Amino acid sequence: YAPWCPACQQMELIWERFAKESEHVDITVGKVDVTQEPGLSGRFFVTTLPTIYHANDGVFRRYRGSRTLEDLQGYVLEKKWEAVEPVAGW
């Protein structure tokens, strides 16, 4: 995300709720400010904001679903990430 990004600002409250409620299902939710960590935006091929990745056991998958709280939770809880091709090279 970036603090100046309108789409990131629009999603901020949903992301904060997702992070707070995820504590109950034993996952960690975070965010990276690409203006503070520009190297990560290159490493993760970030070309649009916000960009969401799911990481599990060192395997990264890009989330391309709806940005609702319910869909974010479902992606994790229903293990929908298993059907997504991992990002190559990691």
Give me a quick take on this structure:
The protein has 90 residues and is of the alpha+beta class. It is built from 3 helices and 2 strands, in the order ααββα.
Overview of this protein structure:
The chain has one domain: Glutaredoxin (3-Layer(aba) Sandwich), CATH 3.40.30. The chain contains three helices and two strands; from the N terminus they run H-H-E-E-H. By secondary structure, it is α+β, with helices and mostly antiparallel strands. A two-stranded antiparallel ribbon has the order 1-2. Helices cover 36% and strands 11% of the residues.
Integer count of domains:
1
CATH architecture classification name:
3-Layer(aba) Sandwich
How far from one another are the termini? 21 Å
CATH class: Alpha Beta
Average pLDDT for all residues:
92
Under CATH, the topology can be stated as Glutaredoxin
Cα-atom Rg, whole angstroms?
13 Å
- The percent range for helix content is 25-40%
Return the structural class: alpha+beta
Task: Tell me the major beta sheet.
Answer: 2 strands, antiparallel
Strand content: 5-15%
Q: Supply the CATH superfamily name.
A: Glutaredoxin
3D shape: globular
Number of helices: 3
* Total beta strand runs: 2
